[in-house]
Amino acid sequence: MYQILTCLAVDHDIRYTLAAVTICVMGSFLTMRLFARSRQSTSIQRANWLFLAGMIGGTTIWTTHFVAMLGYQAPGSVGFLPGFTGLSFIISVIATTAGLAIATYGGNTPLAEGGGLVVGLGIACMHYTGMAAYTVQGSLVWDPVYVIASMVFGGVFGMLATNRVVRPVNWFCKYSGMTFLVLAIASTHYTAMAAFSVSFEPAMTIAPSLVSPSLMGGSAIIITFVLLAFGLSTYVIDSETSLQAVARYRHLSLHDALTGIPNRAAFQEHLQALLKRSNDPTARIALLSFDLNRFKEINDVHGHGAGDAVLRSLADRMSSILRPGEFVARVGGDEFVAVLPRYYARTDGLEFANRLLAEVIQPIEWNETVLSVGASIGIAVGNSSTKNADALISQADVAMYRAKSDVTGTICFYDKSMDEAARARNALAVSMRSGLAKGAFELYFQQQNDTTSGAIVGFEVLLRWNHPERGMISPAEFIPIAEQTGFIIEMGEWVLREACLHAVRWRNPLTIAVNVAPLQLSDSDFVKKVQRILTESGLEPRRLELEITESGIIADHRHALVTIRRLKSLGVRIAMDDYGTGYSSLSTLQSFPFDKIKIDRGFVEGLATNLQSQAIVRSTLILANSLNIPVLAEGVETQAHLEFLRREGCQHVQGYYYGRPGPAITIDSIVNWMSDADRLSEGSALPLAS
User: Fold this and answer.
1) Dist CA 3 CA 640 (whole Å)
2) Residues 647, 452: Cα–Cα separation, whole Å
3) Half-sphere exposure (CA, 13 Å, Cβ side) for 329?
4) Between the CA atoms of 213, 218, 219 and 225, what dihedral angle is there, to the nearest 10 degrees?
5) Least crowded by CB within 10 Å, which of 68, 166, 269, 560?
6) How crowded is residue 136: how many other Cβ atoms within 10 Å of its Cβ?
7) Which among 37, 59, 33 is positioned nearest to 46, based on CA atoms?
């Protein structure tokens, strides 16, 4: 050890030593970074990074040794033989490249450290080849202990250098890999320098083939720094390109591809950051969840191109009116969210919501067509104690759905009572399934009558739920929940099967009308289900009448048309239910093969006093008559209703005037009544005359 310290402090020129250290540190850092980059790359890129790392590393090792040797002040030193000097450079580059290649392609196996061992031993091999080029006026005497020690130092530190890059345990490992490579070069050099001594021979002559050490040293330093600058420039350019690519990918991952505004992931990230800010009780935030109204109709009528144009336009408009700190994102098909970071009073949330709503409701021009939508907005407020972003989002959604179902307005603030209502709805949804299995549901029947004669022409099936705790629950309460949860498909199939089984047992072959929900109509297996139920029950298809609402048609116009035509081919009759409440049009009546139109009860109720209701009913009857489609009016409760409808040519009516809905037992005398002719045709005995 004393010899090593003496070699470093006394026998070396400090200027050359500093130059060697600078090259060693810079080159080692760049070599290990290039080595790390090669492991991250594949195919031809990996080979290119390995070549560059090998050249930089080999040149660094060789130049560090050569410059340090120039500063070595041995007695009788003469110079360097160019042959061995060049050979030492080649050995340095080849050994470094080979070692890094083994460590790169070795993956996470022990070959990663094996490659470092090759680099370390290559340093020692380069050093002793370089020493063979070193000429003195005498002979060199080697100490085998230091020779072996130099090789051990080089090998061990070389293995540690690649190990820290291949198996990092913390952020500093990218610097510790460089540190161990520096130690591998320095320890090998100075241990090997301490391994020899000069036996001085003054009579010895200088070989004419020697090259000026100063010229070689200056050239080596310049070339090395140029090579390092080239390697560093390449590495920096690639790093900047990678950072730009990462930034681009991050932007794409956090922004909606269609509209360009932040997406759900960006919204979640933004909201989490706001909730983690300082615990200031005044720093409340408002989360707005809003859903577009009438957007699906635009897609259905004008195509998805129109819908995309609407979404882009709305996103641009809302983004343009945002103030500092405000945020808006698209989180679904036609669902948006907005965040107000500084919420102090209810008026702040209303102002922000109305500002966004004003942009939403403005007409949008597309392909010479003016499109317009609305929005239902729910607002939830979070404060310093709110840490759960999902809970805040859920509250805003609950408020938005309440706004959507409330006809009094389009903006609704969340309150705890909404949670109670939501829990009650969820509980009802759960008990619906068990109720259906336990026989808690029952069919009620309401008669449909001929307007002129008053004769019963059929029955409409209505569903009732006798809840074990709440008693009889109105369909207006549980049907919307069944539609929201999708349970309406299973429930509707049960109703259809039970209705057919009831009707097939009637002696009086009246028609049976069953409501079909939009989700049922959109079911691709619906026609097969109807056909299977008719086959299993044995009911004649002509006696089954399926009532379809306009909303079920608008949801998917083409699919609805195909489904209705297939149902008609089975022999089933189709009625349009609740006519006049939706977006009824002449084109709908022309394109769909309806067997009946049912006028909604809302228009019938106002017949006695409301001129507008009279005009709507009258025009509907005229239109239906021109298309040769029978009409049934719902909600007939008075003699005045009946007389108006009879006078205007309405064929059938349904309502409390003739009878309220009742269970199957209440209509038994009607559906099983038989005339004398019917009794004789069945071979039954006529009653005896009194």
Assistant:
1) 124
2) 10
3) 19
4) 140
5) 269
6) 18
7) 37
Distance between CA atoms of 624 and 527, rounded to whole angstroms? Answer: 27
Location of structure tokens 């008693």: 471
Which letter does DSSP use for residue 175 in this model? H
Least confident residue range of 296-310, 355-369, 448-462: 296-310
Ranges of H-type helices in 323-446? 346-360, 389-405, 416-437
Within its chain, how far is the Cα of 146 from the centroid?
Answer: 63
Q: Is 679's pLDDT higher than 50?
A: no
Distance in angstroms (rounded) separating the CA atoms of residues 546 and 568: 10
| Nearest residue to 64 via CA among 28, 10, 118, 117 | 28
Contacts by 530-535, CB closer than 8 A, 24 or more apart: 530/496, 530/567, 530/570, 530/572, 531/570, 533/493, 533/496, 533/497, 533/500, 534/500, 534/570, 534/572
Element housing 25 (H / E) = helix 14-40
Buried b (16+ CB within 10 A) or exposed e, 68-87: bbbbbebeebbbbbeebbeb
Q: What is the dihedral of CA 122, 128, 131, 132, to 10 degrees?
A: -110
* Residues facing residue 380 across a β-bridge: 287
Would you call 445 helix, strand, or coil by DSSP?
A: strand
Burial classification of residue 373, based on how many CB atoms lie within 10 Å of its CB (0-12 exposed, 13-18 middle, 19 or more buried) = buried
Residue with tokens 């009831």: 502
User: Would you state the pLDDT for residue 6?
Assistant: 44
- The neighbouring-strand residues paired with 441 are 465
User: Which residue carries 């409301």 as its tokens?
Assistant: 610
What is d(CA 266, CA 268) in angstroms, rounded to the nearest whole number? 5
The encoded tokens of residue 634 equal 């719902």
Looking at residue 209, its pLDDT comes to 44
Q: Active-site residue numbers?
A: 634
Tokens of 516: 């079909």
Residue 486, Ramachandran bin (φ over 0: left; ψ between -120 and 50: alpha; else beta) = left
Nearest Cα neighbor of 120 from 149, 83, 144, 141 is: 149
Residues in CB range of 639: below 8 A, 6 or more apart: 657
SS3 letters across 2-22: HHHHHHHHCCECHHHHHHHHH
* Percent share of the chain, pLDDT over 90: 25
The interaxial angle of helices 389-405 and 416-437, nearest 10 deg, is 80
166-220 residue pLDDT tens: 888 776 777 888 889 889 888 888 787 776 665 555 544 444 444 455 555 555 6
CB 122 within 8 A of CB 91: yes
Please list the residues that pair with 599 across neighbouring strands.
579, 633
Q: How far apart are CA 142 and CA 195, in angstroms?
A: 5
- Name the residue among 644, 636, 639, 575 with its Cα closest to residue 601: 636
- H/E segment holding residue 649: none
| Count of positions (residues) in the chain | 690
C-alpha atoms less than 13 angstroms from C-alpha of 279 in its C-beta half-sphere: 3
DSSP-derived pairing of the beta strands 335-343 and 662-663:
unpaired
Are 181 and 189 spatial neighbours (Cβ–Cβ below 8 Å)?
no
Is there a contact between 501 and 534 (Cβ–Cβ < 8 Å)?
no
In a 3-state reduction of DSSP, which class is residue 457?
strand
C-beta of residue 49 within 8 angstroms of C-beta of residue 37: yes
For 272, list phi and psi in degrees, rounded to 5: -60, -40
Helix (H, G, I), strand (E, B) or coil at 130: helix
